[in-house]
Amino acid sequence: MRKLLCIIGATTLTAIVVAMIGISMLIWKGSGLDAESQAFVDAAVPAITTHWTKEALLDRATPELRATVTSDKITALFENFSRLGALVEYDGAKGQANMTYFTGTGGQISAAYEAKAKYENGMATIRFVLLKRIQNFHVDGQPGVRSSQGT
């Protein structure tokens, strides 16, 4: 009986140690992914929205996003966004990366971020969904609201 309890105790202890190592590695990798994805968004927002360059978005987009949006649609969207004017002030992105794993489909790393920026003719909130590239791009802008630093 004593031998059985020692085996169960050792097995339990081993499982706990392995679980703690796994959780530590996920936390370490997760913080690295957060930093990487935030740096990506912080570089993408000025590149895309300083002069509202659709090519800058498409260069960073996933193949899925490029396949679902037509050239005419993205041109119309960027003509609308450009009414906000040039980028005046960027407040930085807030969000986080997520790691998911599903049996049968495998793992996926994604991130969701929101960035606020001031433009010549208003404010905008820009939302990103990333899969190592831009999966979704959405702008909530207020072209009628002038920034305090505008002309």
Protein topology:
Blueprint: H1 2-49, H2 54-60, H3 63-68, H4 71-81, E1 87-102, E2 106-119, E3 122-130, E4 134-141
Antiparallel strand pairs: 1-2, 2-3, 3-4
Summarize this structure briefly.
With 151 residues, this protein is of the alpha+beta class. 48% of the residues lie in helices and 31% in strands.
Protein described:
This protein is α+β, with helices and mostly antiparallel strands. It has four helices and four strands; from the N terminus they run ααααββββ. Strands 1-2-3-4 form a four-stranded antiparallel beta sheet. The longest helix is centred in the first third of the chain and has 48 residues, at 2-49. The mean pLDDT is 80.
Note the beta-strand portion. 25-35%
Q: Distance between the terminal alpha carbons, to the nearest Å?
A: 84 Å
Give the helix level as a range of percent.
Answer: 40-55%
Low-confidence stretches: none
Shape: elongated
Major β-sheet strand ordering: 1-2-3-4
Instruction: Please give the number of β-strands.
Output: 4
Main sheet attributes: strand count, strand direction, barrel closure: 4 strands, antiparallel
Q: Find the structural class using helix and strand composition.
A: alpha+beta
Order of helices and strands: HHHHEEEE
Look at the structure and give the mean pLDDT. 80
How big is the Rg?
22 Å
Task: Work out the helix count.
Answer: 4
